[in-house]
Amino acid sequence: FLLSWRDVQHLLVKTSRPAHLKAEDWKTNAAGLTSHLYGFGLVDAEAMVMEARRWRTVPPQHTCSQVSARRSHIHAGLRLNSSITTSGCSEDPQVHVQHLEHVVVKVLLLHPRRGDLEIELISPSGTRSQLLGRLLDSSSEGFRNWEFMSVHFWAETPAGTWTLEVKDTPSKLRNPEVLNLKEWTLILHGTSQSPYQNPAVPHPRSGEQETPEEPEEEEEEYSPCHRECADRGCDGPAAEDCRSCIHFSLGTCVSQCPQGTFENGTSRRCQRCSRGCESCRGPSVRDCLSCRRGRFLNLLTSSCSHTCPPGTFTDDQRRCGSCDDSCRECIQQADRCTACYHGYLAGMACVPQCGAGTFFHVEERSCSSCHSSCRTCSAGPEACLHCAEGFLQQEWRCVQACSPGFYPGTAAGLPHGLCHCEENCLRCSGAGSSCSRCTAGFSLISRTCIMKASCSDDEVFCEMVKTNRLCQRKFYRQFCCRTCLMNA
What we know:
Elements: H1 5-15, E1 27-29, E2 32-34, H2 45-53, E3 62-67, E4 72-74, E5 79-86, E6 99-110, E7 117-122, E8 128-133, E9 143-150, E10 160-168, E11 179-191, E12 248-249, E13 253-254, E14 261-264, E15 269-272, E16 277-280, E17 288-291, E18 296-298, E19 303-305, E20 312-314, E21 319-322, E22 327-330, E23 337-340, E24 344-346, E25 349-351, E26 358-361, E27 366-369, E28 374-377, E29 384-387, E30 392-394, E31 397-399, E32 407-409, E33 417-420, E34 425-428, E35 435-438, E36 442-445, E37 448-451, H3 459-467, H4 474-479, H5 481-486
Parallel strand pairs: 18-21, 30-33
Antiparallel strand pairs: 1-2, 3-11, 4-11, 5-10, 6-9, 6-11, 7-8, 7-10, 12-13, 14-15, 16-17, 18-19, 20-21, 22-23, 24-25, 26-27, 28-29, 30-31, 32-33, 34-35, 36-37
Domain PLAC: 451-488
Organism: Oryzias melastigma (Marine medaka)
GO molecular function: serine-type endopeptidase activity
């Protein structure tokens, strides 16, 4: 069926809630909490849709009007109260109003400055609604059959005395005319029947029987309500026909909320999780317990994202865990670092930058002193990077004198001497062609190490090399090794 504009208003009043909205004028009337700032509160679209699924169209709207009995006057700075007593037109069933919706006050009032006036309407139940409070209005036209409407009396019973309270507070010196309230009319809109009363005959709960008032030829049978229906009955045997639920509501009554929703214990409804959450404990993006396919669960923020943020790692359950405090980036586990905040990376651990003369001891997880021959070292006390003063570097050790087969020398950029031989030479007696042993793949020719495969000695070419004195260059000497070295 189609909802009318009045049905939609009833649904808004019934399902809206104050939530986190803060105001000093929240008060309770027959329909619930109301405020001049927020009306009936925050619109709950999900609750409104679920309520609309089982909604029954409200009864026809009636209108009852009554005019004030006499004129009233008030001097500046005073307050005027004018009352109307009504039965809600109970004497006429065609216009009788028993359950209020909108209340309209039509005013004929003369005044030199409208912004000095405040108007409030007070119902028989004591509910107070502010109709006028516009301080910046400097018009002198007053209100000529001006209509003010309020919904703050929604669902109240109109029978009784209604009071119109008018206060005149001069904002500045003005003519001393008195306020002249010539007439005001109270117009009540509502229904004679309760809008929330379902005219359909309810189905009895399971185990109950309904005895007909008068015996009939054939006894009408009633199906029991679904086991998830609460004490308000049902309109049919299925779970979606329940008028209220024992456990939780999701358009239909369920014993537990399905995946992608969470249980709201206050409203007893299944509410949807935030987008991306597969399961959650609340509606926020930071209430996720697990994520939908293709997303990762951040254990630190309880949120779901397409990738894990920097400073986290991904485990085999697609969760983002925080890296160790020393790691800027890590993989698979918190302490498997791939980048460091401070220090340097040793294997998959971040180690501190040790001072001169010390190195990081992996087993002891601290900085230890280098050997006395080393100025700096790494991975061990004798794994020297730079030698101390008076020592020469031979391979990865610092020595005071070179071992047999090596000769002392210098290297550009190093503050200490080296024990070494020419390239590809394992043992030598000095600089230049003094090699006595070559590395694998090289041949010793005239005390020089030559690559075995490159010494071809093309006769014509090598003779030209020798004639042009190119044997001094390494490339030609390598290619024409016999011509340049053996016959030199």
